[in-house]
Amino acid sequence: MRENNISLSSRIFYYMMVFIVVESIMIAGVTLYQFNNQNSEYHEGRLERKENNLLTDIKYEIDKAGINSIDALSNGMILEVADVHNLEFELYSLDGILLKSSTALTGVKGTTVIDKQIVDYFKNENPSRYVEDDTNTNYFKSSYNLVTNFKNEPLGIIYIPYFADDTSSKQELTGFLIRLGFVHGNMILIAFVIAYFISNFVTKSLDSIGETIKKTNLQNKNVKINVDNTPREVVALIDSYNTMIDELKSSAVKLAKSERETAWREMAKQVAHEIKNPLTPMRLSIQTFERGFSKGQEFSKQRIKEFSDSLIQQIDTMSSIATAFSDFAEMPEPKKELLNVVEVVELAIDIFNKNHITFSSSSKEIQANFDRTQLIRVITNLLKNAFQAIPEDRKPEIKVSISEKDNDINISIADNGYGISKTDTEKIFEPSFTTKSSGMGLGLSMIKSIISAYNGNITFSSKSNVGTTFNITFPKI
User: Fold this and answer.
1) Do 352 and 317 belong to one domain?
2) What does the H/E/C string look like for the chain?
3) Three-state secondary structure along 111-152?
4) Residue 64 maps to which CATH number?
């Protein structure tokens, strides 16, 4: 499963802020679109109203003058109508020839001939007004329409140039957008705060669940989750977890019981096997002695002593087996005392032949809270294993070193023995595992238990026929 480095609270916060910003942009876009549409509709309607009013006035002027021709209209009347409606216009014949122009009279030169396309358009039956937009700008329109009398007889074509003045509308739009931006800016700030608290509220219970789940295992006493103000969806998750804790507790009890039974069953097999080994020669010795005695055979003091020594040796073997088993089964509780680790390790080394052991320490005094007896037991067991791992035809070379780093102490014991095969590396710390012809294989398992009781760790590295190095690390306090 690929992990996303962005937290859930950050994503909730991010999505809410993106939503607010996108919503603000969309409102601004819709506002601009609506303004442009309304502005366009306003100018189109305004041009049409002005055009209709202008054509009506021209009809009245023609009717009042008693004429039936555009060309007969006076220039004064043209200027007067243009001033009244505040609108420039030009009058053309039905063939598109310029007849009258308010722009020409005011000094602005107009078009003298209308495009043939427009002239042909008004020759159709019942033509409507013709509006042409400028392709270069949205602020100019050209409107064409028929000039008629009250009998609806076409007399000519009127042309009205229209300039759309959007200055006031744009100022109004600018003001509106500024106010809208101010409102949405405040909304974004408020949403920022709300999104922060909402994201933390939503993920608070999830964080609590995550922390509790991290501590969940078969060894510890697991605590159920109880979080107030929890969303309904998270409540279902919490209920599932609490149910799982109940099942896990039951399973842990069953598993621990099964593991204990299995461990003691294996241990019993190992003890029985180890005890049978000395019992067999004891049985044979006693049977031999019994057969000789029943036949009236006389035994010399030397023969009886040999027989007695043999039995005592086998009894001592069984006693050592019982002692090892007892030591492993009744590991004492960790008892911490402030001691000099260097001094205790040197004391453990004194038991062995120091000619074959090289000892070094980064300091003459390295103090730690550890049980003196337990530490001596650890060192002597490792040294004993080191000597036993060296072939008889090889001179023993064992190196013991102590060092400290930060708040940890490291003890290293290296030998030049056979080494540990790859197939045995995973089982080396298991109870009852041994590669020797004698012994119960409890030494390394006992050492690991002692070191673990002091929150330490034991590891090893080995190379075949070169040697093995055990590294013990434990905290000073």
Assistant:
1) no
2) CCCCCCCHHHHHHHHHHHHHHHHHHHHHHHHHHHHHHHHHHHHHHHHHHHHHHHHHHHHHHHHHHCCCCCCCCCHHHHHHHHHHHCCCCEEECCCCEEEEEHHHHCCCCCCCECCHHHHHHHCCCCCCCEEEECCCCCCEEEEEEEEECCCCCEEEEEEEEEECCCHHHHHHHHHHHHHHHHHHHHHHHHHHHHHHHHHHHHHHHHHHHHHHHHCCCCCCCCCCCCCCCCCHHHHHHHHHHHHHHHHHHHHHHHHHHHHHHHHHHHHHHHHHHHHHHHHHHHHHHHHHHHHHHHCCCCCCHHHHHHHHHHHHHHHHHHHHHHHHHHHHHCCCCCCCEEEEHHHHHHHHHCCCCHHHEEEEECCCCCEEEECHHHHHHHHHHHHHHHHHCCCCCCCCCEEEEEEEECCEEEEEEECCCCCCCCCCHHHCCCCCCCCCCCCCCCHHHHHHHHHHHCCCEEEEEEECCCEEEEEEEEECC
3) CCECCHHHHHHHCCCCCCCEEEECCCCCCEEEEEEEEECCCC
4) 3.30.450.20
Q: Which two structure tokens, joined as six digits, stand for 284?
A: 């044979």
In a shared domain, residues 370 and 445: yes
Q: Are 144 and 122 in contact (CB under 8 A)?
A: yes
- Sign of the torsion formed by the C-alpha atoms of 37, 38, 39 and 45: positive
Cβ count within 10 A of residue 129: 16
Q: Is residue 215 part of a domain?
A: no
- For 174, the token pair is 């600018």
- pLDDT, tens only, 37-70: 777 777 788 878 888 888 888 888 888 877 878 8
Instruction: Please report, for the domain that includes residue 436, its CATH number.
Output: 3.30.565.10
Instruction: Kindly state whether residues 470 and 351 are assigned to the same domain.
Output: yes
Lookup result for tokens 């008629």: 148
Supply the range of the domain harboring residue 432. Answer: 337-475
Indicate whether 234 pLDDT > 90: no
Model pLDDT, residue 412: 95
Residues 352 and 319 in one domain: no
Query: Which tokens is 288 given?
Result: 């031999």
Mean pLDDT, the chain, rounded, equals 77
Tokens found for residue 334: 């960790």
| pLDDT-derived band at 226, boundaries 50, 70, 90 | low
Sequence-distant (≥ 6) Cβ neighbours of residue 461 within 8 angstroms: 468, 469, 471
- 126-to-90, 119, 153, 358 alpha-carbon distances in Å: 22, 14, 11, 122
pTM assigned to the model:
0.38
Please write the tens of the pLDDT for every residue from 401-446. Answer: 999 988 999 999 999 998 888 777 777 777 654 555 444 445 687 7
Name the nearest CA neighbour of 87 among 130, 58, 120: 58
